[in-house]
From TrEMBL:
Name of protein: Uncharacterized protein
Compositional bias per record (Low complexity), positions renumbered to this chain: 149-167
Region called Disordered, residue ranges: 148-195
InterPro entries with a match to the protein in the record: Ankyrin_rpt, Ankyrin_rpt-contain_sf
Gene3D superfamilies the UniProt entry points to: Ankyrin repeat-containing domain
Molecular functions (GO terms): ubiquitin-protein transferase activity
Amino acid sequence: MSEQLHSAARNGDIAALQGAVGAGADLNAKDKLSRTPLHLAAWSGQTDFVKQLLALGCPVSSAAADDMNALHFAVQKGHAETARYILNAGLHVDCRTRKGMTPLMLAAGQGHTEAVSLLLKRKANPAATNKRGQSVLDLCKPEVRPLIEEALQQRAEQQPQQQQQPGAGAGKKRERPGQRKRKAAGEDEGEEGGV
């Protein structure tokens, strides 16, 4: 039954979904890669199917084996409308995969302009870095680079300028946008989990 539901999700087959619901199918059933019907519908851009699953109570934050969730799947394939609905359902715009990838990193890495614009409008962090230390700017395709650069510039302008008194902060290194402070061994990174 779950294999049929996963296929229906990829194809956006609402009638098959309704039949599965009537038969008592587990709407959060996972395939061998721990992907749920919600993940596959998001990956395929099946917005109406995503809406139906969420209305039926499927958890928006459910994660696959690599901690990718429905938002990651949608933006990686450039499905901005689907991503918009998932964000409206409450998923955090800067949620991360196991490798520390944010939805913005995935969308920018594929050059999906509409998805990048949506995420930036929803306040995605353009200065985020993944666990390898790569920034959104490092990962982005040329077609979205101006959007990321503009967002980084706006972020830099909005951050309050620190007024230092003489001698205060001497010897401290300033952090640039996109650069992350190194943590001491054992110190919590404080990153969002892939929920």
